[in-house]
Amino acid sequence: xADNHNEGAKFLKSVHQYFxxxxxxxxxxxxxxxxxxxxxxxxxxxxxIEIDGKIxxxxxxxxxxxxxxxPSKGGIRFSMQVDEDExxxxxxxxxxxxxxxxxxxxxxxGGVKINPRTSSVKTLEKVTRRYAAELIKKNLIGPGMxxxxxxxxxxxxxxxxxxxxYQALKYGETNALGCVTGKPVGQGGIRGRAxxxxxxxxxxxxxxxxxxxxxxxxxxxxxxxxxxxxxxQGLGNVGYHAAYFCQQDGALIVGIAExxxxxxxxxxxxxxxxxxxxxxxxxxxxxxxxxxxxxxxxLLETECDILIPAALENQININNAAKVKAKIIAEGANGPVTxxxxxxxxxxxxxxxxxxxxxxxGVTVSYFEWLKNLxxxxxxxxxxxxxxxxxxxxxxxxxTATGKSMNTQEKAMxxxxxxxxxxxxxxxxxxxxxxxxxxxETMRKKNISDMRxxxxxxxxxxxxxxxxxxxxxx
Length: 474
Ligand code: GLU
Description:
Elements: H1 5-23, H2 30-37, E1 41-51, E2 54-64, E3 72-78, H3 84-100, E4 106-112, H4 121-137, E5 146-150, H5 156-169, H6 196-209, H7 212-215, E6 229-233, H8 237-248, E7 252-258, E8 261-264, H9 271-281, E9 291-293, E10 306-309, E11 328-330, H10 339-347, E12 351-353, H11 355-358, H12 361-375, H13 384-402, H14 408-415, H15 420-446, H16 451-469
Parallel strand pairs: 3-4, 3-5, 6-7, 6-10, 10-11, 11-12
Antiparallel strand pairs: 1-2, 2-4, 7-8, 8-9
Helix pairs in contact: 1-3, 1-16, 3-16, 4-5, 6-8, 6-12, 6-15, 12-15, 15-16
This protein binds glutamic acid (GLU).
């Protein structure tokens, strides 16, 4: 795992630097801070797979950054760029991400060196099942141990294979489906997980736009999404949904950057249509009424209100940071801004909504999925009808008292009881709003000017409580 070593090392260094910046504000003992920062375990595997009649050795890794709470949690990425330091950085981020949104898990991440775009479905299935089996064998996957999820290059299909492999090897285990999240709904998944990260990104941006104190002097009109010009890098699961929900709320998606190039239209691009165009033609380029941008990285330097990097790490770095013209950078991806770049961006007055907060919607809904799997019941199943019956009694009482009857549509709206998707979305919205205000409170209390340091500090202090509970005091 050496090809991407420089990038991975840079990423890990950035994450450690971010941690150190925040740790300075903490009163926890230096030893405890060291423990909170350290990666608890790294497990590497190599296994042979037959691909087109040839045997190839595939490398995989799983890093559990923290066991302060169990299970540990984090996605699995499939990419030829997978590198040990990169996965360590991502696992570290997961620990702090979970703490920021009060998801009671430690952080983890996994990776397999395979190109999901050029591999056949058969190969991907073999690789996924074998990687899962290698981890299960060592008790490194399990509902109370470590629970993977989708990440770059993986999705619900891969999670279904992992769950199936786990169930085959742990036949009859009641909580088996809680061994992995991001599964298809038909296999123990939860409604709303697929769009959760993007929806969380939207909720986070919406909170920031309503925060007058934060935006003072930033030359951003109004305090809503209406008319905000957004550029998004990456039209994968996170980028697509983030852009989609922002657009639904009135934003203009003026630019989309992808691997093969980018498109720009100052009047706004229909995200759904652009996604369809890319699926059909294999490229984002040549989309109707939009200008092709040959080098998609140029879009990171293009004038806009909000830039959403939702692809990979280290995208905004020392080479382009000074040229970024966005007023807000909303980190949909993990680690898209390097620590050196951040210094420049902050100096230029750019607000950064940090990954460990902004993209935590995915793991939040993964937590809901895990709860669903442990309880073996769909959310809303027990209460929906009882809720509706009491709303109906209320509506009837209002009609009797006022002597007026409501129309069918009004009634249906008032009587509707919460089902799974309503509960997931409301839980996610509440989580993103609460976490936002906790971070802002830390900024005020500790006189911290950037959100990332405050988010890390909020997380460090929460994790510190676990150690204090064990009697390890500063
Ligand atoms: N891979 C996602 C992340 O980086 C989701 C992790 C999860 O749901 O466990 O946050």
